[in-house]
Amino acid sequence: MSLDERMKIFKDKEEQWKNKGKGAANDSVQFTVAGRMAKKGDVPNPNSLLEESPPVSLKRSAATPVKPHEEISSRSSLKVEGDKRLDKLESFLDKLHNKGGSTSKPSTIEVTTEMEKEVMTLDDEETFGNFYKTVSPSTLQESAVIMTEDDLSQIQSHTPTLTSTVAEHKRAVRPARRNQGSRNPLRALAARNDIRQVYTEQRLNVASVESKRIQAEKVAKHSRSNLADVALAGLASKENFRKVSLRSVKSTEVMTNNSSLPFNKLMLIRIKGRRHVQVRLVEPTARSLNSGDCFLLITPKNCFMWSGEFANVIEKAKASEMASFVQTKRDLGCKAPQVTVLEEGINTDSRWATEFWSLLGGKAQYRGAGEPDEDEVYESGVLDSNGVYRLQGDKLVPHEEAWASIPSVSLLDSKEVLVFDFGSEVYVWHGKDVPLGDRKVAVKLGKQLYSSSYDYSSCRVNPLDASCTNTDVPQKGEGRPSWTLFGRLSEHNETSLFKEKFLDWAERKKEESAQAEEVKVERLSFDLDLQPCDTKALLDGEPGPVKTVLEGVDIQRGYGTVRADDGRQAQLTTVSVEAWHIREHCEEELPQESVGQLHEGDAYIVRWTYSITTLVGRRQKPGELSSSTPGRERTACFFWQGRHSSISEKGTSALMTVELGSHRGSQVLVSEGKEPPCFLQLFQGGLIVHKGSREDGASQTAGWRLFCVRGEVEAEASLVEVDCQRSSLRSRASLVLLNAQKSLVYLWHGCKAHASARQVAKRAADRIQERRPSELGLRSSSSVTVEVVEEGSEPAELTEALGSRDNKAYDCMLQDPGKYNYTPRLFHLSASSGLFEAQEKLYPARVPEGIMAMPFLQENLYSAQQPALFMLDNRMEVYLWQGWQPEDTECTGSAKIRWNNERKCAMETVLQYCREKNPRRPPLAYLVLAGCEPLTFTNIFPHWEKDSRLTSKAESSKNKVALVKEALSKLSRQQYSVEELTRKPLPEGVDPLRLEDYLSDQDFRNLLQMSRVEFNALPTWKQKNLKKSKGLF
Fold first, then answer.
1. Integer Cα distance of 1030 and 1008 in angstroms
2. Whole-model pTM?
3. Closest to 264 measured CA to CA, from 307, 296, 305, 306
4. What pLDDT was estimated at residue 278?
5. Domains plus CATH for the chain?
6. Predicted local distance difference test score (pLDDT) of residue 836
7. pLDDT of 395-421, one tens digit each?
8. With contact defined as beta carbons under 8 Å apart, do 764 and 786 qualify?
9. Cα dihedral sign for 75, 78, 84, 90?
10. Are 824 and 730 in contact (CB under 8 A)?
11. CA within 20 to 30 Å of 466's CA: 147, 293, 303, 976, which one?
12. How far apart are the first and last CA of the chain?
């Protein structure tokens, strides 16, 4: 065969596979919404669609809503109701200003009183006579001069003669002037009629203004904050609260004065699109739904998310994100406790589905899914109907740049008012710096726009009827439907429905958060002034359910119904479980009968293969769920490490886990005692943790062996081997005593063991009887007998196996009448972050609202960084466990001060916790030192091992167990004698850097020969030298 023939055969083969099966030509189409629709027969083959349908144009259409020929201005003929909230705000400010004006009224000079007064008239003759002195006639006669003709002869001849020529010459030199006739001013004044004999006297408030000004300056000088006059007036006003009527808060309905709320009581929101998903308000009826989109139904009490069968992944993600935001942030007036997820065709007869359809007016027919390219066509078409206006003066002017396009956050300005018309939604948005008058004008014009006619005849999509299912809503008409929305929004108070209309709102949020991070001031590394924790918050805190996420799916407890990747319900099924024993440099696969037999001195790898199958509802029988085609198999590798396993074994198990999980499975580290429920359920109650290692297991099978039962669910039961002695018994637990040679199992129940704990223990004993593992020394052919024994009724054989009859070896509760139906709580108290905080330790396999008698292990305390502080709440009493100071760490003076401050704050927290827990009869609080824990404390844990090193240290202390109240009083002591402060070691809680502060005033003067004031005035170096000389350093 030639090369050309071979090439021809290869090309034929390439063409043949394209024609096999539906949608085989393009896998990218086969698994899309179009491919799913093609398989159901709703649309033609997706391959034919790709070939025949023309490409969708992504360019914006020229068809846009008709712009108004003139700017929108206020019309008196159209009666539009204003915003009640803005009106009330304006009236309130007016009243406040008037009230403020009453107190600040003297700040302006005004006329206070006016009085009319008459002008006093005077007699002219009397006034003239008083002014000029009178002359008698005799005086005039005496002073008179008599002239005769002889007197004229005395004139000299050379005296110049006054002729008329000289007189005329002098008159010619003088300037010409107008000579008026003589006038009597008194006569002229008497002849005037405009002169009043009465005048008005006005008195001003200058004195009061000045006194008020001086008083205001004094108030401003001593005030800590600069308050406005209006604010001061409001504070100084007196109100009659008897006239105030309080409204009821029982109703969940939003009570507000804002008549332009940006949401309705019933809203149906459509989420549709692929690139920028469009979130639009539609008519809240069943006919608005369709199988190709997602919808949110929001009421004050409910938040429903309804997903169509053929909705794409982007729409589902956007709907889930928005529903979660609305519910958590209580947006759009919604106070729903949770988001109710509904899927088309699944659980259609549930209570939530019934309520969903009733809110929409009853179940009715609705459209199916549209063409595969309908989302992109809708996106580009609905954007053409967007209209944006800006307020200029008292008119709304179309925004040329933002018209008929997707809006951007850059349009929003703090000093501007914008009106957004999205068809079914009209919003008036104003910045924070816009005056109140402009806001009122904008709301009035916005309502005028909302109430006036609309025209979408030139648009490809009618935003009031995008589904084309309502014939009552034409493309051009007068007034919008009643379900549409008109709302007023202010800056930084926008709703999610408004934010989703913008292209880059999420980016703006990221920028603001980044700026907030930069402005954030770093907190000090450590603050010595520690404050106790909020104990009320500790008591009210409730642990959430267990979550384990593998490959993006929360598998919860590892079985049953879970939520798949796309949010739908799915069934989780275990396919297989395999285990390997890790040695120092190799691994050994365990047989199936040994899977679940672990040793605390070894490391193991457990590979779990499981599948998640999506549940599908049958439309013929609503409410029923059936499994679709099996989901793909997934793998999770757990590398379990015993608490006494070596470092090399731990490292080998980690490397081995990577090899086994090379096919992209999950790797999970599991430490002994902290197993998650998904790991425990793999063995269905057959998990047993043995002492020692697997190599020396044969030598431990002889004689009696004791196991403590752990777990809260029967499928998650596990056995942990403990010392076979009476001190290992617990009155609130169940234990298993095994003798392999006799094939005998005693199932021992404590007198206070809960019913659920007894069932779990029975399941563990039954699994031993069924499997008979060789690690326990049992043979597959042997018959195991299980006998149930109650505390206090033990047979002689069991008593002899435990080695003692003394019930004081453990905290026996046979004589205790109390009911132990509670779960202990453990809190880690620490100030490592700079603030004193309490972090609750939770049991990994906890059950919500379940009773767990011993949820914690000794490792929870001893594995923490020491010295540590833990608060253990055991209902009847509260313990404060105090750790030890490691030998390899140097304890400096500052470290001691810090540690004493933490201890003091922890004691205050414990006492406050007890008072908050039971104000009338607070439980007693005990201080317990590490290594000297009493039986009442150690028996709260399933098993306890004493550390000889810590025990020897703790035995040296005088008080092993003390009341927290007494320990706090010693730690808080403020005064000591000179002998106590100069003796080593120093008393507990004393700061070695300021020993002089603990002296009394008399001892201070006697020792340092000066007063405290004189000592504090000295330089620091002199103070240190003086204290050294007196032994206070």
1. 7
2. 0.51
3. 296
4. 92
5. 267-377 (3.40.20.10), 378-507 (3.40.20.10), 576-609+631-683 (3.40.20.10), 684-812 (3.40.20.10), 825-972 (3.40.20.10), 978-1030 (1.10.950.10)
6. 87
7. 999 998 888 889 999 999 999 999 999
8. no
9. positive
10. no
11. 303
12. 104
238-249 b/e (C-beta count within 10 Å ≥ 16 → b): eeeeeeeeeeee
Q: For residues 612 and 568, is the Cβ–Cβ distance under 8 A?
A: no
Structure tokens at 198: 């009465």
Angle at which helices 1001-1008 and 1020-1030 cross, to 10°: 90
Query: What secondary structure, in 3-state letters, does 508-520 show?
Result: HHHHHHHHHHHHC
- Whether the bond into 463 is cis, omega within 30 of 0: no
Residue type, 880: L
d(CA 559, CA 649): 30
User: pLDDT at residue 791 above 70?
Assistant: yes
Residue 228 has pLDDT above 50, yes or no: yes
If DSSP codes are grouped into helix, strand and coil, which group holds residue 695?
Answer: coil
User: Which tokens in the block code for residue 787?
Assistant: 């006998």
What dihedral angle (degrees, nearest 10) is formed by the CA atoms of 164, 166, 169, 174?
-100
> Furthest-apart CA pair in the chain: how many Å?
193
- Facing residues of 200 across strands? 116
Q: What is the pLDDT of residue 519?
A: 37
- Helix, strand, coil share (%) of the chain residues, nearest 5: 35, 20, 45
Residues 6+ apart with CB under 8 A from 828: 838, 839, 840, 841, 864, 868, 869, 870
Residue 786 burial (10 A CB sphere; 0-12, 13-18, 19+): middle
Cα–Cα distance measured from residue 207 to residue 112, given in angstroms and rounded to the nearest whole number: 11
pLDDT digits (tens, 9 = 90+) for 246-287: 554 444 444 454 568 899 999 999 999 988 899 999 999 999
If we measure between CA atoms, which residue out of 679, 682, 688 comes closest to residue 709?
A: 688
Question: CA separation (Å) from 928 to 56, 182, 203, 862, 907?
Answer: 75, 125, 84, 13, 12
8 A C-beta contact, residue 125 and residue 224: no
The 3-state DSSP class for residue 1020 equals helix
Return d(Cα 540, Cα 557) in angstroms, integer. Answer: 25
Angstrom distance (rounded) from CA 696 to CA 488: 78
Structure tokens at 721: 């081997």
**In the predicted model, is pLDDT for residue 498 greater than 90?**
yes
**Helix ranges restricted to H, 194-255:** 206-222, 229-236
Integer angstrom CA distances of residue 1002 from 972, 994, 996, 1007 = 21, 17, 12, 9
Cβ pair 940, 854 in contact under 8 A: yes
Query: Mean of the per-residue pLDDT values for the chain?
Result: 79
Q: Among positive and negative, which fits the CA dihedral 889, 892, 896, 901?
A: negative
Q: What token pair was written down for 168? A: 């005329």
